[in-house]
Structure formats: structure tokens, C-alpha cells
Amino acid sequence: MNSDEQAIRDVVAKWMQATQATDGQTILSLMTDDAVFLRPGHPPMRKAEFAAGLRAQAHGSSPRFEGQSEIQEVQVTGEWAFMWSNLTVTAYPQGGAPSTRKGNTLTVFRKQDGKWLLARDANMLAPVQS
User: How far apart are CA 74 and CA 58, in angstroms?
Assistant: First the structure.
């Protein structure tokens, strides 16, 4: 595994740890300013909307999240890279039953100032039936 691939895997690990710790500042530092998230059944979400969701979560008005990312492939070409993974995310709403979504993701990273950052993310997470 080359150093760029390891750096991208490290970004994902840091993202997952920050998500569980409700560390929005760290999560935001791991994405480009023009980051776009594509989700089934929803319009594209930009970084500002993502940040608003993190602020709501920090104030206790959103669910707590836990997740696991199983990286299947990382390909690096110059200042761009892509990764696909199997992702499982469980939301724990206050006073409600947890819900789990699982599926594949395709993530595009861009290298800026020597650091790999998430630039685009498309997920196909679907509810897991219990």
C-alpha cells in the first residue's frame, strides 16, 4: 500500500472516530470547501448544510451516530483519488429506537496543501430491516 492510499484510509478512520465523538470541527476539516454529498431520495447536500447538521447534533437536537466503513478499494491518480466502501451507520435518536442504514459508497478525494480531503461522496445506504 502506498503512502497516499494509507493517508486516505487514515482520513476515513479519523472521520469515523470524529463522528462517534460528535467532533464536528474535525469532520469539517476533513472535507473540501466545495464538498458535495449525494444521498438517495434527497437533493445534493453541500458543506454548509452538512455543517448545520453537525451544529444541530452538537446541541443535542439530532441523533447520535455510529458507523463502520469497510474500504473495498482505493485508487489514486495525481491529486485526485476515489474509494468505494461498504458503510453501516446507526442513528440513535433521543428517546427513540435506533435505526441502521447500510450500503455502498463512492467517495472522491482531492489533495490540497499536501492533505487528502473528501470532495464528493455518493452513498446508496438503505434501511436495514430488523
Answer: 31
Domain architecture of the chain: domains with CATH: 3-127 (3.10.450.50)
DSSP letter at 31 equals E
Q: Which three cell numbers stand for residue 48?
A: 454548509
Tell me the whole-structure pTM to 2 decimals: 0.91
- CA 107 – CA 120 distance, rounded (Å): 6
Q: What is the pLDDT along the chain (130 residues), one digit of tens a residue?
A: 899 999 999 999 999 999 888 899 999 999 999 999 999 999 999 999 999 988 877 776 678 889 999 999 999 999 999 999 999 999 988 888 999 999 999 999 999 999 999 999 999 999 998 6
Query: At residue 99, what are phi and psi to the nearest 5 degrees?
Result: -130, 140
**Which phi and psi (to 5°) does residue 100 adopt?**
-120, 140
Within 10 Å of residue 89's Cβ, how many Cβ atoms?
19
Residue type, 29: S
Closest CA to 26 of 15, 37, 39: 15
Are 53 and 65 a contacting pair, CB within 8 Å?
no
